[in-house]
Structures are given as C-alpha cells and as structure tokens.
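Next comes a single protein record:
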Amino acid sequence: MNRDTFIYNEGFSAHRINNNSIVQFQIKMKLFILVLALTLVFSASAGDAYDWRSRSIYQLLTDRYARSDRSDSPCANLSNYCGGTFEGIRKNLDYIKAMGFDAIWISPIVENYEGGYHGYWATNLYKVNKHFGTTRELKKLVNAAHSKDILVMVDVVANHMGPVGTNFSQIVPFNLSEHYHPRCLLTNWTDQHHVENCWLADLPDLDQNSPFVKRTLIDWIRHLVAEFKFDGIRIDTILEVPANFWLDFTRAAGVFAMGEAFHAGYQYVGGYQNVIDGVLNYPLYYKLKEIFGAKQSMSLFTTHYVEMGKHFKNQDLLGNFVDNHDNSRFLNEYNDTRMFKAALAFTIASRGIPFTYYGFEHNFDGGADPLNREVFWTTKFKPSSLTKFVKTLHEVRKATRWYDQPQIESLADDSFYAFSRGSTFFAFTNRPDEKQVRTITSHPYHEGQMLCNIFEIGDCVRVRNNTFPVELNNGEVKIFVPDYGAKELLKSYFS
C-alpha cells in the first residue's frame, strides 16, 4: 500500500461524526485500525516528510539509554562513556512504543575521539562507534524498530570533526589541513562569515567549499542512509555551514532532514527551511520557557505565531521540544512539575513534529551538559504518571489526526491560552496555583454539542448559546473532543 495514499485518503475525521452516529463512528474506527495494522505489516520504513509530520519522536542518547546486559548500576562519570548500546535500545523498543512514540532519534553512530560518548567528535566517518556496538547490531536495531513501525532518525555532523587540534592525520577521511578552515575560535555569533568559518568549541571546522570535502560528505551521507536504512537525519550545527551546502547534502540523503539551528531569531532560523525540510523549533522552545517557566503573559503565543507565519515555510515540519541534550532541562531552571507537564503537552499539541527527550517521564532535572545527559537505566524502565499522560496524548493525536488540521487560536490572555485543531480543543494555563475559568466563544462546535476532556472520563461540557466554559485547576491541561464515545473506543483499541 502506498503510505501517502493512506495518510491522505484513509481513516476518519472526528469533526464529521455527530452525536447520532455512534455506530457509524465505531465502524469507521475499526476500519481505521484495520487499515493502520495492514499498513504496518506492508510498510515500516519511510523517509517522506508527510509521514514524519504524523510521527512523535523520542530523543535518546545511545550511551545513556540502556546497556546490552540490562544492568541498572549508575554511571561514575557523565563526561565519558557510561555503557549504553544499540542492543540496549533494541531490547527496550517496546517500552518506547508503549508510550505512543513511533520514531526515535539516536546519537551519531560513527567512530569518535576518546571520550566522545555523545557522538559529535568524529574521527572516522566509515567506522561504527565500537562503544555503541557493531554494524550488525546497529542494523538489528533499525530492523527491529521498523518491525514495530518505529522510524529511526540518526544524528549526523558535517560541520566539524573531533578535537585533534591541528593533528589531522588522525582523521578519516579529512586528514589534511586544506580540508579545514584556518583555526579561529567561534566567538562572534552576529557575524555570519565568522560563524561559518571559525571553530565551534575549538573543533576542526570543515571547509564545505573544498570540492573534496563537499563531494566526500555528500557521498558519505548517501551511503550511510542506504547502508543502515535510516528514515531521517537530524543535522547538527547547520548555522555553522554555508546554507547552500545543505541542499545537495539533504538531496543525497534522500530522507527527511531536521536541522539544528540553535538560535531564537524567527527570520534567521526560518530562512534555513529553504534548504532543509525542517528545523528544530528553538523560537518555540524559548517561548515555552518564558511563558510556562518564567510565567510571562500567555498572550505572547499570539505574537509568536504571527512571527512564525511570517518567516517559516512550513510550521508542520518544525521540531517542537521543551528539553534536549544541549540545554539545561526545564525542571532544572524551573522547579515546577505542573508547568513542565503543560509545556510538554504544548509541544505535542501544537503545529510541528514533537521531539520528547528521554527522562521526561521521570522528571529528570539535569543542568548544563553533561548533567542533562543522565543515564536512564537506573529507572528500570518503569512507567510513571507522565508515561500515561503522553500515551493518551499520542492516542488521541493519531485517532483524530489533529496534525492534519490548522491551529486556530481561540483565547489568549495573561494566564490562559486556548486553540483548536479540527474538532480537538486545547486549553492551557501558566498559573498553577490559581483556578482559571473562561467562557469560550470562538470554537469549531455546533449548538448543543457535548465535549469531553480526554484525561478524565465524565469531565464534559455542553455548547450553549455558542459558548462553553473551561475550568483549569492546579495548572492542568485540558483537551476536549466531541462526546461520541471516542474516549472509550480509544481505551479499547490503544490500550
């Protein structure tokens, strides 16, 4: 079956079902599940951008996630290898799948300089990092993920190599000084020439204008994706490389590409979507911290989305996140689990592809690198209230396909923000210690329609006089869908 045909033409749309057609809805839901199951049997791997926009990605660091022997002892030194492997990830794919994630992002897989547990210090592009496992084990991981309809995104680096100073003889294949820009430390982030030509963190900066460097990198990424059957690539440090290089690089990869543009500027970051499918949504990341962390006015979301509309070509292909491996965790900066939960839900609910960083489910609160790169196996992969919360979000996201719907703002003020996507309604607050009650007048529902909160059976409101009330307590998130038995069916089909 053609995956694109299925996504565009099959399934159901919740807004087409009314209160008098529960039986019809049940039939459509069963057909949807059947078609989905058949799709998983016949097609597991995909590199298409449209497929990725329906996915939810679990980001993990290979070295920090799970050991091959499933041991759970702590790591003595977070600045070096701790023992996580490809096999460890493979053995825990069911844990990831059970939370509703259907894609994973793994660390760069190539051989690294001593201490390069994170994967960003490459010394040989043609060898797999032995600390993570063998070529065979990596292929087993990818194949196992595909068998579970989990796509695999691999992190890649084309900006720099490992910290060898100027002793380039250690590097394969870029072993000559002419393959690099002259050594200068990257310090001036306002000068694009400086950004693209100087050395980030004193890492040897490749010269992509060198014909040999460009050709070799393009040949390498083509081979890497084909050899291991990766479904997507996350590209590190795209700001530090001439933008036009990425057009040829991503074309050679032939799969969905997500670039890291570590910057808050709307216009600056948005410009890279002209050369790469998607970029990590740093403008939203900073806004989430301002609003849910620092408790600034939630009406800032209004201006945020205006700016996004001006400067981004396709917001549905941006990578939404609240935590990652490069920034202190939200709970380290803002010790508020309720607001973290709200910010997390916002990344899944709003336009874009959700990226959720491992450890969220146990409220990891590490600070700056490497403290935000905790080992996960100490949790013994036990579920938590957040795993259940995210699972519910994923179930409804898939069932109602809200990722196919525009995001339409309903209400925005200092302490309340609401929007709809199709027939799904989302309400947030950043005042966890204050009850928030609002009357919603802008919404997609008809008079008399009953709406129910997906997180609590029986929490329902009815549209009267074209309005309905929303009450938020203790910083909770509410997501409403029309009451035609959807919640009960979802529990039955996705449990």
